[in-house]
Each structure stands twice: as C-alpha cells, then as structure tokens.
C-alpha cells in the first residue's frame, strides 16, 4: 500500500462517484459518454461477530485453536519420522511412514490456512474501500527531465559520437551467444547425417531375428499360428547405443494362416509361410504398436488408437496414422532360423522433414 | 427498491443448500458405485487335481453334447457360430469353462467372465473329452504355478510381452470395438498359464518356445508379487494410470479448490 494516492484513507461511496469522471485524466483509455452511474457500495451489514461479543470470543478461540493444531501437526510429523522408520526397506513401511508424515504436514499447513482465512472473515475489519489507481503517465517536468538525463548521458559517454566504439560493442554483444549455438549443436548427431540416421536401422541381410529381451534366435518352427514374438535384431544387447538402436529396430513377429494374408506382388516373398514381421514403431508419433488381436488380425496403437490390418500389409484402418507400418522382409537360413532379407525398405516411425 | 432486492437475496441465501452438500453427494455416490462394483466382481474359483480316464472322456462327451454342441458342433468340429475345438487341448477347456467364459451367455465382441457354470470335476471331464479328440495344450504342471520364480525377470517379460494390453500393473485395458484385455488381479496362476499357452479369444499365443515354462512361472510370480505388496505411491486408483488419476484430481482436487474458493469469498454472517 506504499503507492496509495490517498494515504490509505477510504473514499466513501459519495466521494468516489465524484472523482470517477475526471475528464481527460492521463492514463484513462476511453472516455465513456453517458456511462451508468456508479451505484456505490451496498450498505455495510454487520457480522454476527460484530454484534455479539460471545460469538466474537468464540471466533477468536477457533482461530488460535487452529494455530495450535498446526503446531501439533508439525510435531506429529517429526514424531512420525522417528516412530515409523523405513530402514527395513519394505514398501509397506515406506507407505506408512509417508502417510503419517504427510498427514502431519498437511494438518500443519491446512490449519494455518483455515485459521488465517477464518480470522480475516470473522474478526478483521470488513468495511469496503477503494484505492484509486494513479495515472500511468508522469508529469511534464518528469518527462522533460528524463529526456535531459538521456541527452546528458549520451554527451558525456560519447555513445552517439564515438561510432567505432559503439559499433564494436554491438558486434561483441552479437558474437557473445555464438559459443552457445556451437555447444548445443554438439548435443546432436556429430559425424552422421540425421536424415540418414532416421532412414536406416541396424537390420542387415542375414541378421537373425531374436527374442526381446533375451536375444535368443527364433526358429520358424517356434512361431505357431496365432503367436506373437517381440523381436530385436541379433547382437542388439551388445551395442553401446542399444536403446537408441532398439527404438528404431523393434519388430513384431506374427504368424497367420497364409491364406489370410493378401500381399501385393512386390512383397510376396517378404513373409515365410504366414510369418510376417512389421516395425513396432507407429508411423504417427512413434509409440510402440503391439496390441495384436489374433482373431481380427488388427494391431492397435495404445497412444492414439491407430489400427493396422496385418492381413493387408498393415494398412491403416482407423486413427491418425497416415502410413502403413513398414514391413521387414524375412526368410529362413540354413539352420531354420528366421533372418532379415534386408533393412526396412522405408524409414520407420513418424514423418520427418526430409522423408520422401 | 434496493431494500427489496436485498431482502430477496437474503431469503435465497437461507434456502440455499450447504456449499459442501454437492461434494458430499458426489462422494456418497462414488462410494456406493465402487462398493457395488467390488461386491459383484468378487467371484471364487476352485482348483482340483486332474486325472482323466476313459470314463471321464465318456462323461465329458455327454456334458459336451448337452452344453456345448449347439455352437461347437456335435463332434466339436465347429460351426458358423463357433470355432472347432479339435486340437485346442485340455488347457483351453479348463481356462474357458473354469473362468466362466464358456458357455457364452450370448454372442458378442468378447466372451466375458461370469460365475462358473460347472463343478471342477465336470470341467475336468469336458477337458478330458476335448483332449481325447486331438493332441493339444495340456493342463500345466503344478511346479510352474507355485509363484516362487524370479519376480524381477517376470516383470521384464511381462513388460515386453503383456503390459501393452494388460497394463503394466495387470489392471487390464481397452482394445478395439468393444473388446478388452481383462484385469489379471485375482486370476489363479493356473488360468494365467493356460491363457498364455492357448491364446483365448483375441489374445495371441505365447507358446513354450516363445516364453519358456520357467519364464511363465516368473510372470506369475511377478503378478502375485504386485498383488500382495502395496503400491509405494499410496492409493492405486485401480492402477489405471492417467485416466483414473486425472478423474480423481478433477473431481476431488478441483472440487475442493472450488469449495475452498466459495468459502473464502463468501461474506461472513
């Protein structure tokens, strides 16, 4: 209240209507013609605590009791910390300890809050008043004086006159953020083209399909009709950037009755006896699509409900995804294990700027 | 003029419900629905040692023809209404009939769990009959059902293979067009194992070459572990994640903020 124009004194309803319509007052935006008359405050209604001293004493008791309750809550929280140790490491102990400490602290804070609000509502002075907002624009002298100060500073420092100093300073300030740009660039892929990184996965010709998470290879005979295997490329677990690689190369392997599959002529050889492998990364925003329904042969993405029809090359039948899931061409090697024929023929996952 | 409006306002005020009444009503309503849901959901199931003989097969065939043949055909060969049961094995029968999913009450997107219609002895006879038609998945060995495997390893397998549909805490989740993955809480170890090897309804099959019997035992151990141990985060709200938690915060969190705001800004009497 340090900025009070009227020194904190209240303006009565009658006085406020008199100062409301100062014409051309600096800081007022639009002068409204024939504005409705300010009705002023409704008459002050005394509270029960204003009229009945017993009620007032009772309200006072309530407020200080609440503050004492808050102290009790704080002490309770300290006592609970000691009384319920968590050293056993058991989850049930952690839960009891957290609950007891939390209750104490909640009581401590809530009681302060409730006490303060009750104090303000029931006991504090409740007459309404208006503090007028002071004008935004300064007085003419202040404005002139500030222009003078700027001109004087310009003269004394020579900022406008010594142009070489001024321009070199501006140059220095422009150059200062450049190291930050270089440093942040260092967080991105350094030696490789990001477009290339997004376009390829670690799948190669002849690489075995292995189980997630154990990394054991899968025989074609292991995959019975109706089965789903969650697949990672062979050797993924030994990679230094295993999680980054997995985020691109994760595959879902399913076996359907071969007569349920309707591959296009170009992709006829991409499956093996009804076994098909599709990228697990949704083409919408990259969630793992793995909710496979073995009777309907639909794959559901849990994030935005895109649905893919595995019988028709994972085409989109519902939801926001715009492209089918990329298919991994597979075949069987001499030992009967499932291997990739090549990498995916298109980038996996969501769209990016340079994707063609 | 001002006097009369003031009087009206005061009259309205005295007739108004207590500000907390709405909150209390919502709380009572939620409590009742939750209680009723929990009461209806509590179903028991029994397990019994399975022994099959030729007399079991014969009684099973009679039971089958009386109760299942309408949809599955007199010789279990399947009809337009229902699939063939030749080669599904005893485990499929024990799961479908033992959880009350079969016989189905009506055709729908999904056969839902309901009170079990047969005694365990009758279920065993039905299973013996279906198993006698062609080799199929057998009732799992007791040693994989004891729940004494490696819970951490089971959790990893569960997260990779099951969590996308059944939720990471096994609370279940929605699928397409009215189908859903059911909650795994309270499901017996035997039924969990049988579901994995038979792939009931739209659930894919997880055969022993995909997840080994030991791996299945670990998964069962994990599911039993999370049911026996309380959540460190306090109330689980069904473990459904953001939906249940968001609803709770919207109703109770925002509700109490609204109630407090009304209290703070109301004029004292």
List keywords for this structure.
heterodimer, A: 356 residues, alpha+beta, Rieske Iron-sulfur Protein, four-stranded antiparallel β-sheet, 11% strand, extended, disordered N terminus, B: 269 residues, mainly alpha, Cytochrome Bc1 Complex, Chain D, domain 2, two-stranded antiparallel sheet, 2 strands, 1% strand
Question: What report would you give on this structure?
Answer:
- The complex is a heterodimer of chains A (356) and B (269).
- Chain A has 356 residues and is of the alpha+beta class.
- Chain A folds into three domains: 48-130; 142-180, no CATH class; 197-340, Rieske [2Fe-2S] iron-sulphur domain (Rieske Iron-sulfur Protein), CATH 2.102.10.10.
- Chain A has helices at residues 13-19, 48-51, 53-83, 91-122, 140-157, 163-175, 178-185, 194-199, 242-249, and strands at residues 209-211, 228-233, 251-255, 275-279, 291-293, 298-300, 307-309, 315-318, 330-332, 338-340.
- In chain A, the strands form three sheets. A four-stranded antiparallel sheet of chain A has the order 1-2-3-4. Chain A has a four-stranded antiparallel sheet with strand order 5-6-7-8, with no helix packed on it. A two-stranded antiparallel ribbon of chain A has the order 9-10.
- In chain A, β5 and β6 (298-300) form a beta hairpin.
- In chain A, α3 (53-83) runs antiparallel to α4 (91-122).
- Among the domains of chain B are: 44-139, Cytochrome Bc1 Complex, Chain D, domain 2 (Orthogonal Bundle), CATH 1.10.760; 141-229, Cytochrome Bc1 Complex, Chain D, domain 2.
- Helix content of chain B is 53%, strand content 1%.
- In chain B, α7 packs across α10 (213-228).
- The longest helix of chain B has 24 residues, at 242-265.
- Chain B is elongated and about 85 Å long.
Counted by DSSP, the helix tally of chain B is 11
Query: Which fold name is given in CATH as the topology of the largest domain in chain A?
Result: Rieske Iron-sulfur Protein
Order of helices and strands of chain A: HHHHHHHHEEHEEEEEEEE
Strand content of chain A: 5-15%
């Amino acid at each position: 209240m340090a900025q009070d124009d009227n020194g904190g004194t209240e303006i009565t309803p009658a006085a406020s209507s008199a100062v409301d319509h100062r014409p051309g007052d600096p800081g007022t935006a639009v002068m409204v013609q024939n504005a409705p008359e300010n009705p002023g405050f409704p008459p002050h209604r005394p509270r029960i605590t204003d009229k009945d001293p017993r009620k007032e004493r009772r309200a006072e008791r309530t407020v200080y009791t609440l503050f004492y309750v808050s102290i009790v809550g704080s002490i309770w929280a300290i006592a609970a910390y000691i009384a319920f140790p968590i050293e056993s490491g058991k989850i049930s102990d952690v839960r009891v300890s957290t609950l007891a400490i939390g209750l104490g602290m909640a009581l401590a804070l809530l009681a302060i809050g409730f006490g303060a609000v009750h104090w303000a509502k029931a006991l504090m002075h409740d007459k309404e008043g208006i503090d007028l907002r002071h004008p935004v624009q300064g007085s003419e002298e202040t404005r002139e004086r500030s222009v003078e100060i700027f001109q004087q500073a310009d003269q004394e420092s020579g900022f406008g006159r010594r142009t070489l100093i001024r321009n070199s300073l501006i140059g220095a300030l422009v150059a200062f953020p450049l190291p930050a740009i270089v440093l942040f660039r260092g967080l991105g892929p350094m030696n490789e083209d990001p477009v290339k990184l997004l376009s390829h996965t670690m799948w190669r010709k002849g690489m075995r399909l292995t189980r997630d998470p154990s990394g054991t290879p899968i025989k074609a005979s292991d995959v019975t009709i109706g089965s789903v295997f969650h697949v990672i490329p062979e050797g993924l677990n030994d990679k230094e950037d295993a999680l980054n690689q997995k985020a691109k190369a994760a595959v879902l392997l399913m076996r359907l009755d071969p007569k349920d599959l309707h591959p296009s002529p170009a992709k006829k050889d991409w499956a093996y006896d009804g076994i098909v492998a599709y990228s697990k990364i949704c083409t919408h925003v990259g969630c793992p699509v793995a909710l496979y329904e073995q009777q309907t042969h639909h794959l559901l993405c849990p994030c935005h409900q895109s649905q893919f029809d595995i019988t028709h090359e994972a085409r989109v039948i519902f939801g926001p995804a715009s492209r089918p899931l990329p298919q991994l061409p597979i075949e069987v090697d001499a030992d009967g294990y499932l291997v990739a024929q090549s990498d995916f023929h298109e980038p996996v996952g969501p769209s990016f700027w340079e994707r063609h | 003029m001002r006097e009369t409006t003031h009087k009206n306002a005061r009259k309205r005020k005295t007739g108004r419900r207590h500000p907390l009444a709405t909150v209390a009503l919502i709380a009572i309503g939620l409590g009742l629905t939750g209680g009723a849901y929990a009461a209806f959901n509590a179903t028991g199931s029994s397990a019994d040692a399975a022994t099959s003989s030729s007399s079991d097969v014969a009684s099973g065939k009679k039971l089958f023809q009386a109760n299942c043949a309408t949809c599955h055909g007199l010789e279990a060969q399947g009809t337009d209404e229902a699939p063939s049961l030749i080669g599904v094995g005893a485990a499929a029968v024990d799961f479908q009939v033992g959880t009350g999913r079969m016989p189905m009450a009506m055709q729908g997107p999904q056969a839902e769990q309901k009170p079990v219609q047969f005694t365990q002895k009758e279920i065993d006879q039905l299973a013996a009959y279906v198993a006698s038609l062609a080799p199929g998945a057998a009732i799992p060995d007791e040693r994989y059902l004891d729940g004494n495997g490696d819970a951490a390893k089971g959790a990893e397998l569960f997260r990779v293979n099951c969590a996308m549909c059944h939720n990471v805490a096994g609370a279940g989740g929605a699928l397409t067009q009215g189908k859903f993955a059911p909650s795994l809480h309270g499901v017996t170890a035997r039924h969990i194992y049988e579901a994995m090897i038979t792939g009931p309804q739209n659930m894919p099959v997880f055969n022993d070459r995909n997840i080994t019997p030991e791996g299945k035992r670990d998964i069962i151990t994990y599911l039993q572990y999370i049911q026996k141990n309380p959540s460190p985060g306090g109330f689980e709200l069904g473990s459904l994640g953001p939906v249940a938690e968001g609803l709770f915060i919207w109703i109770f969190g925002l509700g109490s903020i609204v109630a407090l705001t009304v209290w703070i800004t109301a004029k004292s009497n």
